[in-house]
Each structure stands twice: as C-alpha cells, then as structure tokens.
Amino acid sequence: MGYKIKDPANKSPMVEQAQFLSSKERFLFFVEENRAFVWGGIFLGLAVIVAIVTLSWLNQNNQEHAWELEGKAQTVYLDRPLDDVKQGQENIQKASRMFKDILNQFPGTPSAGVSSFLLGNSLMEEKNYQGAIDVYTSWVKEYGQDHIFVGLVQQRLGFAYLLNENREAALKAFDAVLANPHALNKDQVVFELAKIAEADENIAEAVGQYKKVIQEFPLSPFASEAALRVKVLAPEEEAKDSPSSETTDLDAIEKSSPEAPQVQEKGEGK
C-alpha cells in the first residue's frame, strides 16, 4: 500500500501562520487583508446612524412646527367677533387656509389629523358642505383606527350630508356611529335621528328614538330635551308612563273594588 507524502512546499507561508493565530489575531489579520471592505462597512454604518438621527430630529422639529401653526390657526378660527359677521367670515377663511397649509406641509404628523377635522368644521362654517364631506371622508379613511374620535367625525359627516340634502348618506353615517362600540356620542346621534323622524312627521319613530335617549342615556344632556319632546308629541303616553298616573289608576282600582274595606262613618249603627 502506497502512502502519499505531503509536500510542505505547496502550503503558503500565510496559511501556515494563520493556523497558529488566536481568534483575535485572526480577526485583525482579516481586517488587515480586507482593509478597504472593512472601512467601507464602518462608513456605511455611520451614515445609516447619522441618517436615522437626522430624520428623527427633522420629524420632531416638523411636529413641533406643525403644532405651533395649528395653535395659531385655532386661535384665528375661535377668535371671531360676534358683532362683526364679515370679520368672522374672514377669520374662518383664513383658518381654513392655515389648516390646508398644515396638511400640505406636514402630512403624517399628529397635528395633521386634528387639522383635517378642524378644516372640515371650517368648511361647514363657510357652508361648503361638499368640501366638508370630502375632508371628513378622507379623515375616516386615513385616521379611522382612532375608534373614539372617529365617532365624532362620522357625526359631523352626517350633519354635512344632511345640509347637502343627502339624507340616505347621512343616515348611514349616523348608523356607523351607533355600530361603533367605542363611540362616546351615541346619545346625540340617537337624538338627531329622532329630530329627523320628527321633521319627516314620523311621530311614532320620533317618540321611540326620544324614549331611547331617555332610557339608555339617562345622564345625557339630551335626555331632558328628549323628555320634553315626548310630552309634546305624545302627551297621552307621557301621562300613562308617569308615576303620578300609575298612583291615580291604582287608587281608582282600589275604590271600585267590592272587596275594599269601607270605613264606618261616625254615628253609624247607633
């Protein structure tokens, strides 16, 4: 059997030296052999870190600037003189332009969602109902994950549809609020549905919706007004449901019952 004799001359000196190096020395040897590649990776990592820090700083700066502009826009929107209608309209139009600037310059910032909602309100004040509908609809698509605030926006969307004479779309918007388990404005929506039914002279439905406000939302500020509307629209039902009416009916039954004990008058039987 023949043996193959290895020729040590075929092994490079660098390979022989690498076999006797420690892991640290091997790493330094690799760096030395691939100096350009290593330095390129280091510069690339530093560039990524600098880019992340810069983007974070710019994002924070944009948010602060957006909130500042929105505060100014809200001041213009709210600071309207009650005795000067023309100046009030000019303030609303100026605020609308400022809200649009925020949406164009700082999209995606937290203030953009608030500015979008306030822009819809401003357009409602300008009686630009279709414009308000477009803004509210866009808000629902972009920020619909906010389950609480979306109820308020959908309610405003319903009002805009009503004023734009689109009753069917308005009812769908109101129904969306009622279907949202997180909505906090269901009492007002039910009250508005009752008012719509009353305007349509559908008295039975209106009374039912008003009663729903009273029964399901007894602490609502709309409950007292709903009770007043029930008295006006269905006074006989209100009297029938009232506690005094129940007491009167009970007294009448007791007096007419033959088994009721009779009080003997004084002097009787003497």
H and E string: HHHHHHHHHHHHH
The radius of gyration is: 38 Å
* Average of per-residue pLDDT values: 79
Distance between the termini: 153 Å
Beta-strand percentage range: under 5%
How many H/I helical runs?
A: 13
Q: Regions with pLDDT < 50 over 5+ consecutive residues? A: 242-250, 255-270
- Give the overall silhouette: elongated
Number of strands: 0
Largest beta-sheet characterization: none
Proportion in helices:
over 70%
Derived structural class: mainly alpha
Task: Offer a quick outline of the entry.
With 270 residues, the protein is mostly helical. The protein is 75% helix and 0% strand.
What are the SSEs and their pairings?
Blueprint: H1 13-19, H2 23-33, H3 35-78, H4 85-105, H5 110-125, H6 129-143, H7 149-163, H8 167-179, H9 186-199, H10 203-216, H11 223-233, H12 235-241, H13 243-256
Helix pairs in contact: 3-4, 3-5, 4-5, 5-6, 6-7, 7-8, 8-9, 9-10, 10-11, 11-12
Main attributes of the structure:
270 residues, mainly alpha, 13 helices, 75% helix, disordered C terminus
Can you walk through the features of this model?
75% of the residues lie in helices and 0% in strands. With 270 residues, the chain is an all-alpha fold. The protein has a domain at 185-241. It has helices at 13-19, 23-33, 35-78, 85-105, 110-125, 129-143, 149-163, 167-179, 186-199, 203-216, 223-233, 235-241, 243-256. It is built from 13 helices and no strands.
